[in-house]
Automatic annotation (TrEMBL):
Family: Belongs to the NAD(P)-dependent epimerase/dehydratase family.
Subunit structure: Homodimer.
Alphabetized GO MF terms: UDP-glucose 4-epimerase activity
One GO term describing the cellular component: cytosol
Organism encoding this protein: Acidiphilium cryptum (strain JF-5)
Keywords of the record: Carbohydrate metabolism, Isomerase, NAD
NCBIfam families: galE (TIGR01179)
Keyword Isomerase: yes
NAD(P)-binding domain ranges (all copies): 6-324
Cofactor annotation: NAD(+)
Protein's UniProt name: UDP-glucose 4-epimerase
PANTHER family linked to this entry: UDP-GLUCOSE 4-EPIMERASE
Pathway: Carbohydrate metabolism; galactose metabolism
């Protein structure tokens, strides 16, 4: 079976993908600088899968460390998760985001070229669509970034497309995630935000746990069924399975492609609050605040291309997402 390096493999989406790849028989090498991950994640992965994997503590921006990583562990492909991902922080410190996300990706791609590794799966984001004209959003929609984080994803997508076109990369998959939530059903791994969570589900879980008094709903006058913003929440295990399908494909077939990873169904903020109650029995208190600048009314994926290219569709529902997120939160 092939060996795959996961950069940022100790993070939220990387750790869940590691579980699925290990369970499907892939060997993995986990590379992370642990700037946004707990040090015991590799041990938890071993508890879930019964398999220990090599762990390299390295910064993707460090050329010598990356050269040494590929020399020590020859791999067939890389899944590149390592990045900074907070929109607010990216607006406050754009150069940090250019450095970690863009320069880090250049250094990784150069180390891959030098090591003769030409197959890549890349974590992109629906953020690249900005304010879409229509929903569901297909991959052909215009890219209109509205913040620095989105800009870095758009630049990295362009670099990967150029490397595919010029043959430096033999195969590449650019995956545009919608709103990943939930956790592994074991409750052993999940999303671990530092400080005040920037995303809805971790915030909602912290309110449910009594760590915060209430959830602020940003705006209830959007043109949606209940006035609150509608998003395409996708269970992180569905996302992890999509990565495994993308890895299968880039190993089997040359060429580059870009796909949305979402369920295709939008849920509003209040739908999520109600689903959380149905799944856990807990009423989450909320207050309605003003709209947040830059938020769109509705954003959900057309998942058709992922289904046809990868043979993958999300199967878990919104109550699974709430139940698994809560299990992780309450055990943590
Ligand atoms: N979570 C989301 O909502 C979401 C949505 C769309 C796209 N994405 C993208 O998916 C990827 C993974 O996101 P996540 O939610 O798992 O984030 P995360 O922060 O949990 O995981 C990222 C991992 O990368 C590591 N890392 C950061 N900088 C590094 C560096 N310079 N060198 C080595 N490791 C480094 C961190 O320690 C962390 O373990 C990111 O590229 C993110 O932009 C995430």
């Amino acid at each position: 079976m092939a060996r795959i390096m996961l950069t940022g493999g100790a993070g939220f989406i990387g750790s869940h993908t590691a579980v699925v790849l290990l369970e499907r028989g892939y060997d993995i090498v986990l590379l992370d600088d642990f700037s946004n991950a707990a040090r015991d994640v590799p041990d938890r992965l071993r508890q879930i899968t019964g398999i220990a994997m090599p762990v390299i503590e390295a910064d993707i921006r460090d050329p010598e460390a990356m050269r040494a990583a590929f020399a020590a562990f020859p791999v067939d492909a890389v899944v590149h998760f390592a990045a900074k991902k907070a929109v607010g922080e990216s607006e406050a410190d754009p150069l940090l985001y250019f450095d970690v996300n863009i320069l880090g990706t250049i250094r990784l791609l150069a180390a891959m070229r030098d090591a003769g590794v030409g197959r890549l799966v890349f974590s992109s984001s629906a953020t690249v669509y900005g304010e879409p004209d229509t929903c569901p959003i297909s991959e052909t929609a215009s890219l209109r970034v509205t913040n620095v984080y989105g800009r870095t994803k758009m630049v990295m997508e362009g670099m990967i497309e150029d490397l595919s076109r010029t043959g430096v990369l033999a195969a590449s998959a650019i995956l545009r995630y919608f709103n990943p939530v939930g956790a592994h059903p074991s409750g052993l791994i999940g999303e671990n935000p530092r400080g005040v969570p920037a995303n809805l589900m971790p915030y909602l879980c912290q309110v449910a746990a009594g760590q915060r008094p209430y959830l602020t709903v940003f705006g209830n006058d959007y043109p949606t069924h209940d006035g609150t913003g509608v998003r395409d929440f996708i269970h992180v295990m569905d996302l992890a399975e999509a990565h495994a399908a993308a890895v299968d494909r880039i190993l089997a077939q040359d060429g580059g492609f870009t796909v949305n990873l979402g369920t295709g169904t939008g849920y509003s903020v209040l739908d999520l609050v109600h689903a959380f109650k149905a799944a856990t029995g807990i009423d989450v208190p909320y207050q309605v605040g003003p709209r947040r600048p830059g938020d769109v009314a509705a954003c959900y994926a057309d998942p058709g291309l992922a289904a046809s290219l990868l043979g993958w569709r999300a199967s878990r529902g919104v109550q699974d997402m709430c139940r698994d997120a809560w299990r992780w939160q309450s055990r943590h």
